[in-house]
Amino acid sequence: MVRQVKHLTDDSVVVVEVSGQINQDDLVETFTAGITTAQEHCFKRILIDAREVTITSSATQLYSLPKLLHEQGLTRAHKVAILFSGDSEASKDLSFLETIFFNRGFPMRLFAERAEAMKWLKRERHRADTKAQSAASS
């Protein structure tokens, strides 16, 4: 696995680029690198570029990821966009991950285009995001 973390000051976004085979520990480390950098710069927006990954985690491991990341500092105030390649082996796993995060009230979405991901990240939160957050805290 290869990972690079950078921050875009003008957009208040942390970008984590990851490639290669990644397991649950790698996923936690990747997200945590983004969370830590976001905290250092007082950002709440994280873009994870996972277009060139193969996920080796089981569905059970993916299911536990929101809890593990919450323990690492991910809050429902963070917005996480994940870039993915629709024809990759990882697309099904990432789609499952998006559903898990949504069901637990974390604003996380998948995007095939970086411009769309950045647009969503920079947009103010909508009522649907607030409803998901309220449902998760109930």
Calculate the mean pLDDT score and round it.
88
Inertia-based shape: globular
Query: Would you state the CATH class?
Result: Alpha Beta
Helix content: 40-55%
User: How many discrete domains?
Assistant: 1
CATH superfamily: STAS domain
Largest sheet: 5 strands, mixed
Describe the structure.
With 138 residues, the chain is an alpha/beta fold. The protein has a single domain (2-128), classed as 2-Layer Sandwich (Transcription Regulator spoIIAA). 45% of the residues lie in helices and 27% in strands. The protein contains six helices and five strands, in the order E-E-H-E-H-H-E-H-E-H-H. The protein has helices at residues 24-40, 59-63, 65-71, 91-103, 114-122, 127-137, and strands at 2-8, 13-22, 45-55, 79-83, 108-111. It has a five-stranded mixed beta sheet, sandwiched between helices. The chain is globular and about 35 Å long.
Entry keywords:
single chain; 138 residues; alpha/beta; Transcription Regulator spoIIAA; 5-stranded mixed beta sheet; 6 helices; 5 strands; 45% helix; 27% strand
Set out the fold topology:
Blueprint: E1 2-8, E2 13-22, H1 24-40, E3 45-55, H2 59-63, H3 65-71, E4 79-83, H4 91-103, E5 108-111, H5 114-122, H6 127-137
Summarize the structure.
45% of the residues lie in helices and 27% in strands. The chain has 6 helices and 5 strands, in the order E-E-H-E-H-H-E-H-E-H-H.
